[in-house]
Specification:
The chain is an alpha/beta fold. The chain folds into three domains: 2-113, Rossmann fold, CATH 3.40.50.720; 121-279 and 301-328, 2-Layer Sandwich (Dihydrodipicolinate Reductase, domain 2); 336-469, Response regulator (Rossmann fold, 3-Layer(aba) Sandwich), CATH 3.40.50.2300. It has 17 helices and 19 strands. Strands 3-2-1-4-5-6 form a six-stranded parallel beta sheet, with helices on both faces. The longest helix has 28 residues, at 304-331. The protein starts with a strand and ends with a helix. Belongs to the Gfo/Idh/MocA family. This is Oxidoreductase domain-containing protein. Keywords: Oxidoreductase. It comes from Enterobacter asburiae. InterPro entries: Gfo/Idh/MocA-like_OxRdtase_N (IPR000683), GFO_IDH_MocA-like_dom (IPR055170), Myo_inos_IolG (IPR030827), NAD(P)-bd_dom_sf (IPR036291), Peripla_BP_I (IPR028082), SBP_2_dom (IPR025997).
Length: 476
């Protein structure tokens, strides 16, 4: 038997426990969870052990770990399992930060262990049938894909705030499904989103309704329709149109009985969220592929690289889409945008001679490369008074000498609703992608001290070297 340690005894962990126990070749060896009451109860239900994390990792009887814990623990647990030579099945995503995901995958490759990412829709029998039928040429050349994904009800605002946004939490499944069905990478992605379902989601900085269009090098296109609300149940449909036909995968219904009468034809509603729909979609194929990969007979159906690619698409489109959704009402008026740009320019000029403004309520972001440097510290210390005088509210973001961190900070600031940006780049090349996203969202931006290597024009101000030297001398 193939023994699996389950890391996480929450809602999705309970679904996995049932599937591990029901598979003929796998055993739920142990359950690990910081909440020992949850772990003990779930372990007892399947005659398994309750282990600590270290016990599970060092136990030679554990052949694989299934990670169903909180998102922010995934990357650390993957690395720990890889170093102990365990096969790994991890719920999506690996992490919300793309750079952290890439670092984690390097560890997995170093220790050469199989890693599965739990994009469960790849294992849906209907969706897989669409894939195999298309590969067999049943509809000729695929030309367009439509994915509809609507949840029965929105998550609470508390969850939204830590989820990473709708695209990273929900649409990421559909980005993966589009890659899976089409078999090629998109060359362009366009997205628009709105807050229509729950005002609390918008107040948390998220959207709840989205349309995404992907275009491929072949000319084929895919459309993803997302909503956090579906009054009739868990709506998961897929339609692939080709030169010689059409393949459709419909919803899983509560039952398959249809009623025909004088008033028309009726059928049952789609299955609700948890756990029924997911239990149907988590077929024994998950376990079979895991077993075959550990034996060297197959590669993971959904690897860490697949997880990284889906997050990349979600990450880039989310920062652009969320900013566009918010800025549509704030920045469509040229006068408003011009006012903010003027404030940015004045703030940048102040920063050249005195410092950057810092205020509690964020309106404009000032991204610095490293506040450990005297000049940056001097700017921060001396700017508050000037900012108050000119009515500019700034939040200072410290890049801590890390270009990836500075990029991530800027992208997060877009999603939080920053209205303008002053950027002093840590590296002229490394932050250009974030600067491009800011401009794509039609948000005003200026660069300070260093310019950015970008094809788009960005207003730039050089720093005052005399003041910089004075700051170094006065530091402390």
């Amino acid at each position: 038997m193939f023994n699996i340690a389950l890391l996480g005894a929450g809602r999705i962990g309970q679904v996995h426990a049932a599937n591990i126990a029901s598979h003929g070749a796998t055993t739920l060896w142990s359950v690990v969870d910081p909440n020992q009451e949850f772990a003990t109860r779930l372990a007892a239900q399947y005659q398994a052990r309750q282990q600590s994390l270290n016990e599970a990792m060092t136990d030679p009887n554990v052949h694989a770990v299934l990670i169903a814990s909180a998102t922010d623990t995934h990357a650390d647990l993957i690395e720990m399992a890889a170093r102990h030579g365990k096969a790994i099945f991890c719920e999506k995503p690996v992490h919300l930060d793309l750079a952290r995901v890439r670092d984690c995958l390097k560890v997995v490759k170093e220790y050469d262990v199989p890693l599965f990412i739990g994009f469960n829709r790849r294992f849906d029998p209907q969706f897989r049938r669409v894939k195999t039928e298309a590969q067999a040429g049943r509809i000729g050349k695929p030309e367009s894909l439509l994915i509809i994904s609507r949840d029965p009800s929105p998550p609470p605002a508390e969850y939204v705030r830590v989820s990473g946004g709708m695209f990273r939490d929900m649409t990421i499944h559909d980005f993966d499904m589009a890659r899976f069905i089409m078999g090629e990478e998109p060359v362009s992605v366009y997205a628009q989103g709105s807050n229509l379902v729950d005002p609390a989601i918008g107040e948390a900085g998220d959207i709840d309704t989205a349309f995404i269009v992907l275009k491929y090098a072949s000319g084929a296109m895919a459309t993803i329709v997302n909503s956090r609300r579906s009054s009739y149940g868990y709506d998961q449909r897929l339609e692939l149109h080709g030169s010689e036909g059409l393949l459709c995968a419909g919803n899983i219904l509560e039952n398959q009985v249809q009623h025909y009468g004088k008033q028309g034809c009726t059928s049952a509603l789609p299955e609700h969220f948890f756990p029924a729909a997911l239990q149907i979609r988590f077929t024994p194929r998950n376990g079979n592929t895991l077993l075959r990969s550990c034996a060297g007979e197959a590669v993971p159906d959904c690897s860490g690289d697949d997880g990284e690619r889906a997050l990349y698409l979600a990450d880039k489109r989310w920062s652009h889409c969320a900013a566009s959704a918010r800025s549509s009402s704030k920045h469509n008026n040229p006068t408003q945008r011009d006012i903010i740009m003027k404030k940015l320019i004045v703030a940048a000029l102040i920063a050249m001679t005195s410092g950057a403004a810092l205020a509690e309520n964020e309106q404009i972001v000032f991204s610095t490369p490293n506040l450990a440097m005297p000049f940056e510290v001097h700017m921060q210390r001396t700017a508050v008074k000037a900012a108050k005088e000119m009515g500019v509210k700034l939040q200072v973001l410290d890049g801590q000498g890390s270009s990836p961190k500075q990029v991530a900070d800027l992208e997060n600031a877009i999603t939080r609703g920053a209205q303008g940006f002053i950027v002093s780049p840590n590296d002229v090349n490394a932050v250009s992608s974030a600067v491009d996203e800011i401009q794509d969202a039609k948000l005003p931006i200026v660069t300070l001290d260093r310019s950015v290597d970008s094809q788009k024009k960005v207003p730039h101000f050089g720093a005052n070297n005399y003041k910089g030297g004075q700051a170094v001398g006065d530091f402390g």
